[in-house]
């Protein structure tokens, strides 16, 4: 029927409500997509806690997924993470969180979603300290401190390993340069702490430098994470011409900081990009306090879905929906509580739909 099938993972908390809002807006805009809804809520299978196979197969088949809010942690006492290096945990270990695995991380690993793209652009009508923020951060998404290799050396001494590989560094660097070229950004800045992590961040930088040689038309430079934090909050404008690329944990933290500059995680999209599949998701929490009340703000998920449409080369639909959403926010009449308005999710969604018709 000429439609693309996309996996939709509504998730829990406000996930189903904000997913519904996106679905309604897409129908109104006649986006040629049909949704295949799956649950990623872990189930017990053969003594292990796993993501339901239907969800895995759906993402594999469709190669593109949109994800609302998944449950954060699941107990995976008998699971082993996919790290190639395994260190046997010491006995009597009693480290908080042991045996719990983040579902987000599991999805990123399962599909090898190696680049996490997080743009932050000022939203007109939503007043913050700056009105000219336009950063793009690309975060390595499979390793670093997120490798899940932790153990207790002896009582009272624990180790969490930061694993950096040349291949993953090179892969995310290449993605960042391609992204810069495709988006018309002139510069790639590798963000690091190689002054301290001489080997791991040092190698990350070497990989970035190597890759930069393949892109003579893109300026390449490097900057320290702490300096970047200071500079971005002092004056974000110089960062609007470039893409920043960095190891996993730095990207996790710096992306929240950039999100704060434009109004928070309710307004920022993200995309987890892999070779065989990509998952676009809102980074904010499941907001259990307002879940089910029809008050949630679907903007982050909607903007994530627009990244997805552009990823699928459905730019005209993305542009049209983006304009409708941003105009609705700029007008300030039908916006949700977190944006300073009084509208319900339904009213906000309908206001966007009105602009599409
Ligand atoms: C994010 C989140 C995740 C992360 C958590 C939920 C595992 O904070 O997507 O930024 O730390 O990567
Ligand atoms: Mn985060």
From TrEMBL:
It catalyses: D-threo-isocitrate + NAD(+) = 2-oxoglutarate + CO2 + NADH. One of its GO terms (molecular function) is magnesium ion binding. Pfam families: Iso_dh (PF00180). The keyword Isomerase does not apply. InterPro entries: IsoCit/isopropylmalate_DH_CS, Isocitrate_DH_NAD, IsoPropMal-DH-like_dom. One of its GO terms (biological process) is isocitrate metabolic process. Keywords: Magnesium, Metal-binding, NAD, Oxidoreductase, Transit peptide. Residues 5-352 form the Isopropylmalate dehydrogenase-like domain. Its EC number is 1.1.1.41. One of its GO terms (cellular component) is mitochondrion. The keyword Oxidoreductase applies. Octamer of two non-identical subunits IDH1 and IDH2. Belongs to the isocitrate and isopropylmalate dehydrogenases family. This is Isocitrate dehydrogenase [NAD] subunit 2, mitochondrial. It comes from Coprinopsis cinerea (strain Okayama-7 / 130 / ATCC MYA-4618 / FGSC 9003).
